[in-house]
Design goal:
The chain is of the alpha+beta class. The protein has two domains: 202 residues, no CATH class; 97 residues, no CATH class. The protein is built from 14 helices and twelve strands. A four-stranded antiparallel β-sheet has the order 9-10-11-12, with helices on both faces. α3 crosses α7.
């Protein structure tokens, strides 16, 4: 891994180098399986030394952030002192200041867009999903019908877990910042131990005498947009069974996915949760649902056919069926389904909307 420090006279920020740094940290953020534990432990001890602290007497490993957070709760209850501010917050502030000074205040936004801005939209939501899942597992919200005392106890427990999660350093999920700092050509030296840990492991918790480290996930499944996505199992999974289930980025219960293989029109109609109903529709296929449900078209013209799917307690799904005017290699013509706003009243208006123009302005000379 190339490291460029502020005092390196050869440090040059080029598009190719920036892209290479970003790509390496993209891979680190998505890495699965056990890393080099010895290297991660050396990095953690170096982070303590860099902060002017004694090395932790003990480094404990866990299979997931959930297990490590549970141990952090026990340490906090026993009076353990978090050293996150010294180990992570202060070096981070130093690193960011040096990077901004090196790049220049006016150049930082563009630099971030090519580095952290590239990784953040994928990595940050993933980290937030992990955090929220840990919170819900360790401190479930009280049932709506719970009495006052039970609800108060549940809120207190969630506050305690939130505080424990604030002690965490996100390891590989801090990749957007590591990419920005390294590519800037300055500042990365201040967080070098943290970056080394992030290349080999997941979330970790620094306390005065002990550091809690969690392994990376064993599996990660995402769609083309980088969202968690898997129809036949966990989209994110750790060795101890802690897992997140999702369909195209939306959290779903594990048992919900188990029933996707046998979805029916009636199953879709009777699903009470609007978000899960949309998942069922996407999995079943809008065109197939329209055919199997006996739906009637709202409007048709030379541009296509406008269809509407009425859903209980939700906005209707309105789609335009269009046929590609260019034949496929086998001579057939492919049909496309374009989702349009519920207020759409004509097929032409729907097609025009997909081009970002009003219906009155849509007059193609040749459809492709």
């Amino acid at each position: 891994m190339e490291t460029v420090t502020q005092n390196d006279p050869t440090a040059v920020r080029t598009p190719d180098r920036t892209a290479g740094v970003t790509a390496r940290w993209r891979a680190a953020a998505a890495a699965t399986g056990a890393g080099d534990r010895a290297a991660a432990e050396r990095a953690v001890r170096a982070a303590y030394r860099a902060a002017g602290l004694p090395e932790p007497a003990v480094v404990r490993w866990f299979d997931s952030p959930l297990a490590a957070a549970g141990a952090a709760l026990e340490l906090r209850a026993a009076g353990a002192q978090s050293v996150r501010e010294a180990v992570r917050t202060l070096p981070w502030e130093t690193a960011r200041r040096r990077a901004v000074e090196h790049v220049g205040p006016t150049g930082w936004a563009a630099h971030w867009a090519l580095t952290g801005g590239e990784l953040g939209p994928v990595t940050t939501p993933l980290a937030d999903r992990v955090r929220n899942a840990v919170l819900d597992r360790l401190a479930p919200e009280a049932d709506r019908e719970a009495d006052v005392a039970v609800a108060a106890e549940a809120r207190s427990r969630r506050t305690t877990v939130r505080l424990a999660l604030l002690d965490a350093v996100r390891g590989q999920h801090d990749a957007p910042w590591f990419a920005a700092l390294e590519a800037a050509g300055a500042g990365a030296d201040a967080v070098a131990p943290l970056a080394e840990q992030a290349r080999e492991a997941g979330w970790w918790w620094p306390y005065r005498d002990v550091a809690l480290l969690s392994e990376r996930p064993t599996a990660l499944h995402r769609d083309e947009a980088g969202r968690l996505d898997r129809a036949d199992g966990p989209a994110l999974e750790y060795a101890d069974g802690f897992a997140l289930h999702a369909w195209r980025g939306m959290p779903v219960p594990p048992e919900f996915l188990a029933g996707l293989a046998e979805v029916t029109v009636e199953r879709i109609r009777t699903e009470e949760n609007a978000e899960l109903r949309r998942v069922l529709l996407e999995h079943y296929g809008y065109d197939r649902y329209l055919e199997d449900s006996g739906a009637e078209p709202l409007h048709r013209d030379e541009t296509g056919v406008l269809w509407r799917i009425v859903l209980p307690d939700d906005e209707p799904v309105v789609m335009v069926e269009v046929v590609n005017s260019t034949p496929e290699p086998d001579g057939t013509y492919r049909t496309y389904w374009l989702r349009v706003p519920p207020s759409t009243r004509t097929a032409r208006a729907g097609v025009a909307w997909t081009f970002g123009i009003p219906e009155s302005a849509y007059h193609p000379q040749r459809e492709t």
